[in-house]
Design a protein that fits this description.
Number of strands of chain A: 8
Structural class of chain B: alpha/beta
Largest sheet of chain A: 6 strands, parallel
CATH topology of chain A: Rossmann fold
Helix content of chain A: 40-55%
Number of helices of chain B: 12
Strand order of the largest sheet of chain B: 3-2-4-5-7-6-12
Strand order of the largest sheet of chain A: 1-7-8-4-3-2
CATH architecture of the largest domain in chain B: 3-Layer(aba) Sandwich
Oligomer: heterodimer
CATH topology of the largest domain in chain B: Rossmann fold
Order of helices and strands of chain A: EHHEHHHEHEEEEHEHHHHH
Strand content of chain B: 15-25%
Number of domains of chain A: 1
Number of domains of chain B: 2
Largest sheet of chain B: 7 strands, mixed
CATH superfamily of chain A: Thiamin diphosphate (ThDP)-binding fold, Pyr/PP domains
Distance between the termini of chain B: 49 Å
Shape of chain A: globular
Shape of chain B: globular
Radius of gyration of chain B: 19 Å
Helix content of chain B: 25-40%
Number of helices of chain A: 12
CATH class of chain A: Alpha Beta
Largest interface: A-B, 43 and 43 residues
CATH architecture of chain A: 3-Layer(aba) Sandwich
Radius of gyration of chain A: 21 Å
Chain lengths: 358, 327
């Protein structure tokens, strides 16, 4: 006997097309102010990013990972969070920090080489930058399992990149979340690149790519929950998908995996040179699809955007970011700081080493 | 306070029971810890008493167990994760090294990781490969972790309770070879043994024998054997390897002028190397002989037909004592 024991499909969602035309049936119910806020946060992240890049080039901060072109993923996802939802980022989601209330000063302190930057203020529910990719999936799953155990109404939002989906921890995290029906939302920022290795396998039968899986969203199916794919340059699609996933999580219906298809318009980090491996034609195609101008076209059509609004948003973003730079550059850590929070209490051994600094 | 006669593994269970009863944030998780009560029965009966939400059977994924515990700890729980065997901690090292150990300092104290990872360690039970490891050095070498290894039922209970109450991540290594070898009186109810304090098991004036965990028994036997020849050995159970009670170790070696470290882990960069280095830094002019080490060899832990040859024993320790006494 032979039969099909399971059938699966993966949904794709786009609400704004590349010209900013909206699919009325799917358009989320957001107030004009909320729509303007979405736009503002994307401008804030873009401004932060441009400023950070300039500071790195001037040697005022260290190696920096740009968010250029991926703003809709970070802003749309975080916008769907409640204050008490906990975000588990990796290292590219600058807007998630800012929207969760972390002062921009802290981000520049972090990228400027001080742990003090990730001393996240109380009440800002976001974990620190996580550099070993994929490992944070387990923290997001574990925190969600804890929230369920504690009977809280909150949920977790974990960001990973496309390459993280190859790691063991990503797969273990999804499996734990699925097993305990945890209130967890996992967002894949599929920017098509892991430094120089592309997400998609071409015609080669010899690797050189991240995975031969047709979508990354389908990985959820293996763990018993839904994975969907959205246009990651469409902030409304990202927001709607993540919002729906949060509603589902809060209703006790478990996790969701959302693959956001976007494109890394900058290098991996400031230490990377994408001209060594990237086809400039493809870059150009994706530049035309970038998320901010698309959303601006949508706002224009809704008569929520004009030159005055643009100038005001740009000025506000610049002020926030400039203020952050100014404050961060005043920060001067002391050598003894490296010892003081290794443990709750300084051990005798560390005290002896700390005393070398007087 | 009444007393019960408990083995080491029963003391583990008793400590968990005590802490789960008095603090609802304490959650036990791991492979087979629930219905089955753990492969060594260290969590026996806890599932019945506290239910499946606090004694949590997990998928078989060690990195997952530790990574999920980190997320739980950050949310205010007090997870006690069991890794089934020493050799299976290796998939979880990334989570321990990269996150558990660093979360507090990475955020300058904003997030913390009050987590215990406990597992049976060491050889001598004729087990399969990967079930005989003594990986303590990896953890001691990782700033941000604490490392505790008890050698008897009383300390097991007191140290495990202290570990669960500790605000930082603690690696709790249980000497499985003597899980059931010793039965001694252990007080009912909660008590703690301070993390960071060694214990002098026997006072002596001629040589200091330093060890921990299952090797304490071999070391004490060696001390008994040389006592007949009039050599008075001081025996120290390090108990907590990180933070280490250097003061107690130094005071003893300053008195005896001779030191031997005994451990199962391979010699190179075993904790004996650190102890020897620190003793010569502090006490060179007090030393009457070089600091010696009786340890496992720099080989993989052999399959069980050769494990007796690999492990330190009273004869090997006795030879080292003879050497330092005659130096």
């Amino acid at each position: 006997m032979q039969k099909t024991v399971a059938n699966f499909s993966v949904k794709y969602v786009q609400i704004l097309d590349e010209k900013g035309n909206v699919d009325k049936k799917l358009e989320p119910k957001l107030t004009p102010q909320q729509l303007k806020d979405l736009y503002k946060w994307m401008i804030v992240e873009r401004t932060f990013d441009n400023t950070a890049l300039a500071l790195q080039r001037e040697g005022r901060i260290g190696t920096y990972a740009q968010s250029l072109g991926e703003e809709a993923v970070h802003v749309g996802s975080t916008f769907a969070c409640n204050d008490d939802d906990m975000v588990f980022p990796d290292y590219r989601e600058h807007a998630a920090f800012i929207m969760k209330g972390v002062p921009i000063k802290n981000l520049f302190m972090h990228w400027g080489g001080s742990e003090d930057g990730m001393k996240i203020p109380d009440g800002c529910n976001i974990f620190p930058v996580c550099i070993p990719v994929g490992t944070q999936t387990l923290h997001g799953a574990g925190a969600a399992i804890a929230m369920k155990l504690q009977k809280k109404k909150s949920a977790t939002l974990t960001f990973v990149g496309d390459a993280s989906t190859s790691t063991g921890d990503f797969n273990e995290g999804l499996n734990f979340a699925g097993t305990y029906v945890a209130p967890a939302v996992f967002v894949i920022r599929n920017n098509q690149w892991a430094i120089s290795v592309p997400r998609v396998c071409g015609k080669s039968d010899w690797g050189g790519c991240q995975t031969r899986a047709e979508t990354l969203a389908q990985k959820a199916i293996a763990f018993g929950f839904e994975g969907i794919q959205v246009d990651g340059n469409d902030v409304l699609a990202v927001y709607s998908a993540v919002k729906e996933a949060f509603d589902k999580a809060r209703a006790g219906k478990g996790p969701t995996l959302i693959e956001c298809n976007t494109y890394r318009l900058g290098p991996h980090t400031t230490a990377d040179d994408p001209t060594r491996y990237q086809d400039p034609k493809i870059l150009k195609e994706w530049q035309a699809k970038e998320p901010i101008s698309r959303f601006r076209n949508y706002l224009k059509k809704k008569k929520l955007w004009n030159e005055r609004f643009e100038a005001a948003v740009q000025a506000e973003a610049k002020k926030m970011v400039d203020q952050g730079v100014l404050e961060a550059e005043k920060h001067k850590p002391k050598p003894t700081d490296m010892f003081d929070t290794m443990y709750k209490e300084l051990t005798p051994n560390l005290k002896e080493q700390r005393d070398e600094f007087g | 306070m009444s007393l019960a006669k408990l083995t080491i593994v029963e003391s583990v269970r008793d400590a968990l029971d005590n802490e789960m009863a008095q603090d609802e944030r304490v959650v036990v998780l791991g492979e087979d810890v629930g219905v089955d009560g753990g492969v060594f029965r260290a969590t026996d009966s806890l599932y019945k008493k506290y239910g499946d939400h606090r004694v949590v059977d997990t998928p078989l994924a060690e990195s997952g167990i530790v990574g999920v515990s980190i997320g739980m700890a950050a949310m205010g729980l007090r997870p006690v994760a069991e890794i089934q065997f020493d050799g299976f901690t290796y998939p979880a090292l990334d989570q321990l090294f990269s996150h558990a150990a660093r979360l507090r300092n990475r955020t300058r104290g904003r997030y913390t990781c009050p987590l215990v990872v406990r597992f049976p360690y060491g050889g001598g039970i004729r087990a399969l490969e990967h079930h005989n490891e003594s990986p303590e050095s990896y953890f001691i070498h990782t700033p941000g972790l604490k490392v505790v290894i008890p050698s008897n039922p009383y300390d097991t209970k007191g140290l495990l309770i202290a570990a669960i109450r500790d605000p930082d991540p603690v690696i709790f290594m249980e000497p499985k070879r003597i899980y059931r070898a010793i039965r001694e009186e252990v007080p009912d109810g909660a008590y703690t043994v301070e993390i960071g304090k060694a214990k002098i098991l026997r006072e002596g004036t001629d040589v200091t024998l330093i060890s921990w965990g299952a090797m304490m028994r071999e070391t004490s036997k060696a001390a008994d054997a040389v006592a007949a020849q009039g050599i008075r050995a001081e025996v120290i159970d390090v108990r907590t390897l990180s933070p280490c009670d250097w003061e107690t170790l130094f005071a003893s070696v300053q008195k005896t002028g001779r030191a031997i470290v005994v451990h199962e882990a391979p010699k190179t960069l075993g904790f004996g190397a650190e102890i020897a280095a620190r003793i010569q830094e502090k006490l060179l002019l007090y030393l009457k002989a070089p600091v010696m080490r009786v340890t496992g060899y720099d080989t993989m832990f052999p399959y069980f037909k050769l494990e007796d040859a690999y492990l330190p024993n009273p004869e090997k320790i006795g030879k080292a004592i003879e050497k330092v006494m005659k130096y």
